[in-house]
C-alpha cells in the first residue's frame, strides 16, 4: 500500500511536508529504524570522545616549548599513563656522582681526623683541645643589661661576679655586683633585698635565708663605698648542711626609681664522698709519666678525677682525666701524661700538676654528682726529664684498632 501525505502549518506560516506512515507498517520497519538510531548515536559518542582526547593531549603552543619544567603540567587521560614517557633529566647522573664523591670525601676525612685524634689516649690530651677546662678556679664574671619592668635597659649594666661555682661542706663563695653605665662608670645602685635558697624548681622545704651584700670594706668587700657590693655565701651556715643541689642567691637592685632583679647560681655538696691526700707520686712507665694521686674514699662508686699540667714557664701542656670504680678506703688514681704528647709539645721541665678536681658520679639522679674538695693551684712538681725519656710511639688499644678498622672500611666502600 502507498503512503498518505498532507501539509501542516508550522511556526508563523512556514509549510513543511509531513510524512505519516501507513497504519499497516510491519515489525521489520521498526527494527530497521531502531538499528539506524543506535548506529547514529554511537557515531556521535565516538566523535565527541575523539575530539575531547585530541584537546587533552594537544602539545603546548610553539611559544612554550616542552621542557622538564613544563612537561609534568600536561594533562594525561586516565588509563593512558603507560603511554607517556617522562622527560629526560640530564642532571640526574651528575647529582649522583657529586653525592658519591661527597660521601667518599667525608669517609676519608673522618678516617684522617680519627687518626690524628688517636695519637694520644682519650685520658691524656693537649691543653689546646680543652681551653675552657684549663682554668676551673678563675672567677666567673658576667655583665648584662639592667632589667626594669621586664625590659632590658642598655644604658645601665649590672656586673655580677663569683669566685667559684661548686661548694663542698663548709666552703664559702665570694659574690659581688655593681651597676655601670654604657661607658663603664660605676652608678650608685644599692641592694634592697637578697636571699639564698634552693634553686627552682627545687622541691626542698628550705625557706629563703637573707644574705647581706655590703659595701663597707668588711666581710669580703675589698673597698668601702666604691659601688661594689659583696657577700660571702656559706650554705652550711645558712641551714643547708643537709641539702644537696643547686643554690640560688636572688637580689633586688634599686637605682633611683628603678627596681631590677639579679641572681647567682652555685652547686652545693653537703658531705664529701672522698678526699685527696697528697703527696702525689710519679714514675716513668713505658715512656710515659704516671702521676699517682692518693685518695681517701668514703663512699664507693664511679669517680672522675681531672688535672692540668703546665711547664716551668707557665705554658699549658696537658689536660688529664681518669674515671673508674673505687672501693672505700685508701686508693690511688693514676693520671697519665702520655709520652708522645710530651714529645710533641716539647715543654720545659720541671712540669707542674695543678688544679685537681674530683667527683662521684650519681647515675639516674639529679644532681648527678657529689663533688670532692678540690686541690687548687700547684699540687706536684715533677723531676727534670729529657725529651728522649719519653716515647714517640702513638697510642694503641683494642678500641682504637676497632675504630680504625670501621673507618677504613667506610673509606674503601665509598670508592667506585
Question: If you had to describe this structure to a student in words, what would you say it looks like?
Answer:
The chain is of the alpha+beta class. Among the domains are: 149-269, Sandwich (Immunoglobulin-like), CATH 2.60.40.1930; 274-389, Immunoglobulin-like. It contains 4 helices and 22 strands. The protein has helices spanning 27-56, 92-117, 339-345, 398-413, and strands spanning 4-10, 14-20, 124-126, 140-148, 151-162, 166-168, 173-181, 186-187, 190-198, 209-210, 229-233, 245-255, 258-269, 274-276, 281-285, 288-297, 301-310, 316-326, 329-337, 352-361, 369-371, 375-381. Strands 3, 17, 18, 20, 21 and 22 form a 6-stranded antiparallel beta sheet that branches. Strands 4, 5, 7, 8 and 11 form a 5-stranded antiparallel beta sheet that branches. A hairpin with a 2-residue loop joins strand 12 (245-255) and strand 13 (258-269). Helix 2 packs antiparallel against helix 4.
Task: Set out the fold topology.
Elements lengths: L3 E7 L3 E7 L6 H30 L35 H26 L6 E3 L13 E9 L2 E12 L3 E3 L4 E9 L4 E2 L2 E9 L10 E2 L18 E5 L11 E11 L2 E12 L4 E3 L4 E5 L2 E10 L3 E10 L5 E11 L2 E9 L1 H7 L6 E10 L7 E3 L3 E7 L16 H16 L3
Helix pairs in contact: 2-4
Mean pLDDT, rounded to whole units? 84
Q: Report the major sheet.
A: 6 strands, antiparallel
**C-alpha end-to-end distance:** 94 Å
Give the class-level CATH name of the domain at 149-269. Mainly Beta
- Give the oligomer, counting copies of the same chain as homo and different chains as hetero: single chain
Radius of gyration: 44 Å
The H-level CATH homologous superfamily of the domain at 149-269, spelled out, is Macroglobulin (MG2) domain
Structural class: alpha+beta
In terms of DSSP E residues, the strand content is 35-45%
Q: Quickly count the helices.
A: 4
Shape: globular
How many runs of DSSP E, i.e. beta strands?
22
Q: What's the CATH architecture name of the domain at 149-269?
A: Sandwich
N-to-C series of helices and strands? EEHHEEEEEEEEEEEEEEEEEHEEEH
Amino acid at each position: 500500500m502507498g503512503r498518505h501525505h498532507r501539509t501542516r502549518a508550522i511556526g508563523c506560516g512556514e509549510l513543511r511536508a509531513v510524512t505519516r506512515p501507513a497504519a499497516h507498517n510491519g515489525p521489520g520497519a521498526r527494527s530497521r529504524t531502531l538499528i539506524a538510531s543506535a548506529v547514529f548515536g554511537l557515531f556521535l559518542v565516538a566523535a565527541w570522545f575523539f575530539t575531547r582526547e585530541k584537546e587533552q593531549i594537544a602539545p603546548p603552543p610553539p611559544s612554550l616549548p616542552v621542557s622538564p619544567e613544563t612537561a609534568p603540567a600536561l594533562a594525561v587521560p586516565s588509563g593512558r599513563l603507560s603511554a607517556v614517557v617522562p622527560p629526560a633529566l640530564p642532571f640526574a647522573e651528575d647529582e649522583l656522582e657529586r653525592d658519591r664523591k661527597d660521601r667518599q670525601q667525608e669517609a676519608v676525612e673522618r678516617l684522617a681526623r680519627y687518626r690524628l685524634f688517636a695519637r694520644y689516649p682519650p685520658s691524656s690530651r693537649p691543653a689546646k683541645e680543652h681551653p675552657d677546662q684549663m682554668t676551673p678556679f678563675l672567677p666567673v664574671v658576667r655583665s648584662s643589661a639592667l632589667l626594669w619592668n621586664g625590659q632590658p635597659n642598655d644604658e645601665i649594666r649590672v656586673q655580677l661576679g663569683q669566685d667559684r661555682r661548686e661548694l663542698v661542706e663548709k666552703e664559702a663563695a665570694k659574690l659581688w655586683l655593681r651597676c655601670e653605665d654604657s661607658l663603664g662608670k660605676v652608678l650608685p645602685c644599692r641592694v634592697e633585698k637578697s636571699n639564698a635558697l634552693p634553686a627552682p624548681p627545687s622541691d626542698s622545704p628550705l625557706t629563703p635565708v637573707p644574705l647581706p651584700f655590703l659595701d663597707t670594706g668588711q666581710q669580703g668587700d675589698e673597698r668601702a663605698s666604691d659601688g661594689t657590693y659583696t657577700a660571702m655565701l656559706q650554705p652550711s651556715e645558712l641551714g643547708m648542711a643537709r641539702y644537696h643541689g643547686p643554690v640560688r642567691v636572688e637580689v633586688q637592685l634599686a637605682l633611683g626609681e628603678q627596681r631590677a632583679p639579679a641572681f647567682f647560681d652555685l652547686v652545693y655538696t653537703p658531705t664529701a664522698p672522698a678526699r685527696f691526700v697528697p703527696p702525689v707520686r710519679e714514675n716513668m712507665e713505658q715512656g710515659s709519666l704516671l702521676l699517682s694521686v692518693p685518695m681517701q674514699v668514703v663512699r664507693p662508686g664511679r669517680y672522675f678525677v681531672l688535672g692540668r699540667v703546665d711547664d716551668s714557664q707557665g705554658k699549658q701542656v696537658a689536660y688529664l682525666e681518669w674515671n673508674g670504680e673505687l672501693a672505700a678506703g685508701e686508693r690511688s688514681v693514676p693520671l697519665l701524661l702520655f709520652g708522645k704528647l710530651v714529645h710533641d709539645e716539647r715543654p720545659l721541665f720541671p712540669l707542674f700538676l695543678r688544679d685537681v678536681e674530683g667527683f662521684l658520679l650519681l647515675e639516674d639522679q639529679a644532681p648527678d654528682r657529689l663533688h670532692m674538695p678540690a686541690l687548687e693551684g700547684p699540687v706536684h712538681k715533677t723531676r727534670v726529664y729529657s725529651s728522649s725519656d719519653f716515647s714517640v710511639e702513638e697510642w694503641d688499644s683494642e678500641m682504637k684498632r676497632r675504630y680504625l678498622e670501621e673507618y677504613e672500611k667506610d673509606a674503601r666502600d665509598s670508592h667506585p
